[in-house]
């Protein structure tokens, strides 16, 4: 009898241990890489006031160092509304963040505000997870006015499912000292593809890498080539392609991809591009070993620090014998900030979110952005740039050329799988692994799935 | 403790473990198989699409590339580790000076996180900045420089070598434990009978180590099919999927491309392939005496 | 008991294997004393100092 009781007791103890070990925690879903600074929305009573906490799901593991401008904006907001509202980050690297958002959408624990990849946001919207921000824009007309119609349109599909996180300005940074040493002219807005080939030749002779480019775990680093797609009319027929009325393998894109092939064949890249990451490529550029760096304005602060006034900015080559507009720049809305539809369940939380968005798109936040060398999504004019913000000044000077930008970044309007295939196709041609025609056929094939 | 031998108590005590095993190992396999018959982006609802994913899989050139790479890694790493680790264990199983120190050094790669292993080997195998090509260049052997990683052909072999380096110490330790289980009296008797080293190895050591070798083989098969971080860190599966393995391709399809359904079909096929290979190995190398005993028992 | 010749041969073998296994660590430690830009430069693979 005693032995039987002892056995039952052991079994019960093990069962209880199992159940308690498998019990859910209070934290938001995700894996060990997610630094959950806070749990779900809650309120905290401080004296007579209830401080409303809202979570901000961000796509970097360490917002303070990796998204310092956003971090500072949040800090300023928390300071301004101390005791009333508190915004806290739920941080994870981009891939983990994307997975977490999918999981949390399924179990209804999305953060109140979160960054979403442009390719995924429409699906979230269709599934009903996102709040229609038209109401916010109506309630805050000043904020609505500060956001150009184009940036709002970028994230409108029957509802305003997001507002741009920032503005991306993308192209090629170049090292003025390399050009001075080579004795060749620095690239300007009208520099042609043929002139670029001459630059490549000069760089190769002198032992410089022409374009610092990483591909390892960095397939998204195609920014400088996106304007080239636009200069072959991408925006004019992409809707037809996505509707099935046209193929990716058409004469215009084929001509563009032939140029990519020429770039690769001319030796524009280092021999280990496929084992080098984007960050390694940045290091190669900032240490003076490369003439160009394929990137965007988000790197301005680091380039200022490491290269000072030796850095210039260029929109990329134009193409002669091409009927499309060549004066194309790439100043486009970045991925959207979205709001969970669940915030409407609590008026106070919704108001807190709206207050944060109002601050995020305010002129004060824009000043913080420019000080951190980041282009905000808003259109406030007359904000001064610091004297030592050399790279940002170069980017601004290029913008002042007045070239037109597409409404959205060419890859951001594609679904995830198609987007990945676009990256694969571009790099495949640059590396010489695909012919231009094969690369475009792969895109057509992916579109079928 | 006779009462613990009673079947119902044994079952009761095993129940929590079996439950955990089912929930975290068995059930996810069936969930993955279920999703492999759907089109699902991870958002919203999964849509059943029958065998479309499998039809796509068998006509997908990247799948066959990843399958080929996995088989290359398997063949190279399996043979190198199964045989190489055994002979190193034989060497280390002697009472020599510094043997214990050597054992700990040889084991050291096994304690490093696989992602760090990949990072270390990038600086050795990279065609431009790697030390191997650097040494070859310094010796004037530029013609022997290769794209050890980042090219279209040698990456799977390089990954097999990296995996060999990482797992060597761990398997050597298992082999040494197996060697220590061989009775001393048997070894002395063999010596007295005048057997040489090779005869001792062939007729005594290897037969008595069969179960250890079998365990090592199964560990290798399952481990090789799980290689992921090394590939991610050295080549990322590239360039253009040239060095993908079944696992990395399944991962990138699922989480980068957002094609959960197709990714799960790749994972299901990977699971079946590893089961088949393990089954073949166990069937081929099952102990003949064991087979006879089972036949008699029937 | 192993003969002296055998012992020496075995020791040499084990030493060689151990050095090969340990070399990647040694290389990483050497590289850790260099700046990032030197690591990424082609020249670093040619130097051991």
Explain how this protein is built:
The complex is a heterotrimer of chains A (449), B (298) and C (49). Mean pLDDT of chain A is 90; it is low at 24-41. Chain A is of the alpha+beta class and 449 residues long. Chain A has helices spanning 2-22, 63-66, 68-80, 94-107, 121-126, 134-139, 141-146, 149-153, 176-182, 193-206, 223-231, 234-243, 251-265, 278-286, 300-307, 347-360, 363-371, 390-399, 416-431, 436-448; strands at residues 35-36, 42-46, 49-58, 85-91, 113-115, 156-157, 159-160, 163-164, 167-175, 209-212, 290-296, 311-314, 331-333, 336-339. Chain B has 2 domains: 30-59 and 255-283, no CATH class; 75-244, MetI-like fold (Orthogonal Bundle). Helix content of chain B is 71%, strand content 1%. Chain B has 14 helices and 2 strands. Chain B has helices at 7-35, 52-58, 61-92, 99-107, 114-125, 131-138, 155-180, 184-192, 197-208, 210-224, 229-234, 246-256, 260-285, 288-297, and strands spanning 38-39, 47-48. Chain B has a two-stranded antiparallel ribbon with strand order 1-2. In chain B, a hairpin with a 7-residue loop joins strand 1 (38-39) and strand 2. The longest helix of chain B has 32 residues, at 61-92. The mean pLDDT of chain B is 91. Chain C has a domain at 23-49. Chain C has 49 residues and is mainly α. The N and C termini of chain C lie far apart (43 Å). Classes of the chains: A alpha+beta (449), B mainly alpha (298), C mainly alpha (49). Chains A and B meet through helix 1, helix 4, helix 5 and helix 19 of A and helix 1 and helix 12 of B.
What portion of the residues of chain C fall into strands of 2 or more residues?
under 5%
Q: Percent of residues of chain B in helical segments?
A: over 70%
Q: Note the gap between the termini of chain B.
A: 32 Å
Runs of chain C in which pLDDT lies below 50 for 5 or more consecutive residues are 43-49
**Oligomer state of the chains in this structure:** heterotrimer
Strand arrangement in the largest pleated sheet of chain B:
1-2
Give the SSE order of chain B as H and E letters: HEEHHHHHHHHHHHHH
Total tally of structural domains of chain B: 2
CATH class descriptor of the largest domain in chain B: Mainly Alpha
Q: List the uncertain runs of chain B.
A: none
Rg from alpha-carbon coordinates of chain C: 17 Å
């Amino acid at each position: 009898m005693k032995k039987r009781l002892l056995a039952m007791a052991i079994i019960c103890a093990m069962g209880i241990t199992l159940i308690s070990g498998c019990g859910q925690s209070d934290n938001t879903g995700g894996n060990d890489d997610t630094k959950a600074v806070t749990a779900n929305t809650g309120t905290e009573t401080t004296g007579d006031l209830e401080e409303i906490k809202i979570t901000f799901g961000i796509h970097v593991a360490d917002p303070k160092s990796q998204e310092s401008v956003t971090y500072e904006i949040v800090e300023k907001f928390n300071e301004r509304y101390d005791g009333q509202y508190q915004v806290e980050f739920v941080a994870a690297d981009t891939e983990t963040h994307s997975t977490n958002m999918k999981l949390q959408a399924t179990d209804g624990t999305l953060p109140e505000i979160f960054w979403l990849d442009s390719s995924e946001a429409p699906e979230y919207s269709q599934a009903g997870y996102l709040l229609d921000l038209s109401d916010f824009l109506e309630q805050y007309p000043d904020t609505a006015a500060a956001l150009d119609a184009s940036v709002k349109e970028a994230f409108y599909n029957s509802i305003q499912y997001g507002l741009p996180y920032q503005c991306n300005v993308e192209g090629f940074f170049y090292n003025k000292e390399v050009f001075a040493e080579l004795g060749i002219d620095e690239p300007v807005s009208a520099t042609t593809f043929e002139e670029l080939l001459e630059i490549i030749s000069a760089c190769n002779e002198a032992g410089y890498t022409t374009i610092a480019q990483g591909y390892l775990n960095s397939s998204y680093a195609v920014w400088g080539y996106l304007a080239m797609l636009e200069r072959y009319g991408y925006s004019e027929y992409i809707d037809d392609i996505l509707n099935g009325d046209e193929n990716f393998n058409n004469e215009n894109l084929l001509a563009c991809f032939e140029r990519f092939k020429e770039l690769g064949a001319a030796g524009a890249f280092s021999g280990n591009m496929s084992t080098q990451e984007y960050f390694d490529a940045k290091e190669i550029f900032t240490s003076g070993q490369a003439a160009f760096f394929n990137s965007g304005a988000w790197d301005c602060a680091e380039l200022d620090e490491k290269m000072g006034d030796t850095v210039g900015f260029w929109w990329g080559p134009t193409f002669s014998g091409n009927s499309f507009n060549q004066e194309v720049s790439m100043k486009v809305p970045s991925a959207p900030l979205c709001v969970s539809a669940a915030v409407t369940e609590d008026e106070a939380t919704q108001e807190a979110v709206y207050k944060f968005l109002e601050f995020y798109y305010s002129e004060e936040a824009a000043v913080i952005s420019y000080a951190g060398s980041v282009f905000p999504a808003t259109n406030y004019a007359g904000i001064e740039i610091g004297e030592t913000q050399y790279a940002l000044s170069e980017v601004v000077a290029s913008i002042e050329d007045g070239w037109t930008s597409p409404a959205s970044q060419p890859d951001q309007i594609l679904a995830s799988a198609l987007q990945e295939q676009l990256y694969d196709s571009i790099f495949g041609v640059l590396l010489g692994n695909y012919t231009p025609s094969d690369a475009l056929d792969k895109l057509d094939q992916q579109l079928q799935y | 403790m006779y009462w613990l031998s009673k079947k119902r108590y044994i079952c009761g005590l095993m129940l929590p473990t079996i439950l955990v095993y089912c929930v975290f190992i068995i059930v996810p396999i069936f969930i993955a198989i279920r999703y492999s018959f759907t089109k699902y982006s991870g958002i919203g609802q999964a849509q059943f699409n029958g065998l479309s994913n499998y039809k796509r899989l068998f006509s997908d050139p990247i799948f066959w590339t990843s399958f080929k790479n996995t088989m290359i890694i398997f063949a190279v790493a399996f043979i190198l580790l199964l045989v190489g680790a055994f002979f190193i264990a034989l060497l280390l199983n002697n009472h020599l000076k510094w043997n214990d120190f050597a054992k700990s050094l040889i084991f050291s790669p096994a304690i490093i996180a696989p992602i760090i292993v990949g990072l270390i080997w990038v600086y050795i195998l990279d065609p431009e900045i790697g030390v191997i090509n650097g040494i070859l260049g310094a010796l004037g052997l530029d013609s022997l420089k290769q794209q050890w990683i980042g090219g279209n052909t040698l990456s799977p072999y390089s990954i097999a070598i990296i995996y060999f380096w990482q797992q060597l110490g761990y398997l050597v330790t298992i082999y040494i434990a197996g060697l220590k289980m061989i009775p001393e009296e048997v070894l002395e008797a063999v010596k007295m009978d005048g057997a040489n080293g090779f005869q001792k190895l062939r007729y005594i050591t290897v037969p008595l180590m069969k179960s250890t070798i079998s365990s090592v083989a199964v560990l290798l098969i399952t481990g090789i099919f799980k290689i992921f971080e090394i590939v991610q860190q050295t080549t990322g599966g590239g360039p253009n999927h040239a060095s993908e393995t079944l696992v990395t391709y399944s991962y990138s399809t699922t989480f980068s491309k957002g094609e959960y359904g197709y990714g799960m079909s790749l994972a299901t096929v990977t699971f079946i392939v590893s089961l088949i290979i393990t089954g073949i190995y166990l069937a081929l190398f099952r102990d003949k005496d064991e087979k006879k005993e089972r036949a008699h028992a029937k | 008991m192993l003969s002296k010749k055998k012992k020496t041969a075995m020791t040499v073998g084990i030493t060689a294997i151990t050095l090969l296994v340990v070399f990647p660590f040694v290389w990483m430690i050497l590289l850790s004393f260099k700046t990032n830009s030197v690591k990424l430069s082609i020249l670093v693979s040619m130097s051991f100092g």
